[in-house]
Amino acid sequence: MTLFALTKTQEAGGQIALAAILGVVGFFLLLPRPRGRFVPGGIAALIGSAAVFGAMVYSTFGNPASDVVGSVLFWLFSAGALIFGTVLVVQRNPARGAIAFAFVILSTCGLFLLLAAPFLMAATIIIYAGAIIVTFLFVLMLSHAEGPSDENDRSREPLSGGFAGFAFVGLVLFTLYQTSLAHLPNDGGKDKEQHTPHLPMAVLTPEERQTLANAVVKLDEAEKALDGDIGSHTARDERIVAFDKAFTLALNDLSDVVGGPYTFGPSPQAGTSPAQTAQIRDGSLHQRLFVKKPTTPQAKLYREDQQALEAIERAARIRGLSEGTFKKVEDNLQRDTPDVSAAKAEVRKLRDEVVILHGMGQLPARNVANLGFILYADHLLAVELAGTLLLVATIGAVAVAHRKGVTQ
Amino acid sequence: MNITLWHFLAVAAALFGIGLVGFLTRRNLITMFLCAEMMLQGVAINFVAFARYHGNLHGQVFVLFILAVAACEAGVALALFLSLYRRRRSLDTSDWQELRELGVPPTVDTEPLEVVKEEPLPTLTPAGARPQPTAEEVARV
């Protein structure tokens, strides 16, 4: 193995170069030409290129396998976009090329949906559906169907053209590879988990989401503990003890994420550092998101947007609610006429808040409203420019297509 | 580990590259136009992916502007195709290669296009004798 002891950079560079060269060969063999077109070989080379490309993405940026539905859709749409893009480039018939382009657009729209951009998905489909139909009309109007023609059956410089494109892709991928590892400590790739590329911090990490989900289940159990006989005082005390037990478990989970005034678990050790005390008081969410100013290099991608502020606010609300809920339930049950449904409603209120925090996404849910707000609040000049550009293009198109000196 | 920003960036780069290959090598104006649109789609995926991972919507707003520019481009480009087609009766870009840079040799297509041999349409063998035109039959169309 010592013969092949490459550094990680050389390995990635080699993979990218191999994928690019296979891509060049594939496109060279597939592009329309009078002679020398070898379709099976070209398809094989392109499949090899795609396999090496996928392996490189997999080994460098990680396997997206934990989110099964998302990753299946991602691979489906991205493969669709790339395959139909290839078909568009190597297809002789421009009408079939337009169909392949329609599928490229559909796949891209799928990727837009995965990236939480539903309005853009709809807008792209509507606009490009019109564009493709018009293109079709032009193909029918302008291209001669009969026989081979210069424009459809010849390519300009298939080899160097393919090389230019794939050299570009290879360089971009290599830059991505280096950028994704630039911030990491050079420990020789020992810890795979640490080598995941750095991204802006999430509103909720997967662990926090899991903890919140557990807290919701435990709150349900606490609510169930209130059911039963509350006729006598002993029975009520039993209910309160059972509720206390379940509710404390739920608060243990909650305080990990949103923090609490005191810990419900083992009391903090004498040697607890101030940072750990703050962690116990504020919870991991507040600790992570509430950064006044980036101080360490790790805090470079901190959040100060509306979404993060809302998450902090909601966490504070849950903290406040969780302090009062137990007291209210206990008071309620110890009254002369206990109202179990009111007590349950208190627990349910807390539970609903936790569920909303658990479901909080990365982006605002009201995509269109927020898009419109940003468009007219932050980019008003650009909107005006785009409108002017559309007007100029309309006039320009009429002027260019106008038949001079011909009277109807 | 989930799908990261880098997965989307890699796909977008590949889409852009394929479009670039098509734009550089194809000679049909309409196919070149579609390839340019595909490159725009690659850029749009980049913008939306960055918007997603920065947790704001500015990237999506830029894709809206890309859509507007793409619409303008489509309008002007198709009008240009129409007027170019009127002059040369072809969509081949090489018909316009006198517009090339000074000192660059012209491209000459040396290889002949393969001729598609079409099967002749099936005919029936005539049955019986061919009718002879007669004198009183003046006009037989």
Helix content of chain A: over 70%
CATH fold type of the domain at 5-92 in chain B: Helix Hairpins
Order of helices and strands of chain A: HHHHHHHHHHHHHH
**Which structural class do you get from the secondary structure elements of chain B?**
mainly alpha
N-C termini distance of chain B: 81 Å
The share of residues in extended strands of chain A comes to under 5%
Based on DSSP secondary structure assignment, what is the total number of beta strands of chain B? Answer: 0
How large, in whole angstroms, is the Cα Rg of chain A? Answer: 31 Å
Distance between the termini of chain A: 79 Å
Low-pLDDT sequence parts of chain B:
none
Number of DSSP helices of chain B?
Answer: 3
Output the radius of gyration of chain B.
28 Å
Number of strands of chain A: 0
Query: Which CATH architecture of the domain at 5-92 in chain B would you pick?
Result: Orthogonal Bundle
Question: Which percent bin holds the helix content of chain B?
Answer: 55-70%
Would you give an account of this structure?
The complex is a heterodimer of chains A (408) and B (141). Chain A is an all-alpha fold. Chain A has three domains: 7-186; 206-265 and 273-358; 367-401. Chain A is 71% helix and 0% strand. In chain A, helix 4 packs antiparallel against helix 5. Chain A starts with 7 loop residues before the first helix and ends in a 7-residue tail after the last helix. Chain B has helices spanning 5-25, 29-54, 58-88. Chain B starts with a helix and ends in a 53-residue tail after the last helix. With 141 residues, chain B is mostly helical. Chain B has a domain at 5-92: Helix Hairpins (Orthogonal Bundle). Chain B is elongated and about 95 Å long. Chains A and B meet through helix 2, helix 3, helix 4, helix 5 and helix 6 of A and helix 1, helix 2 and helix 3 of B.
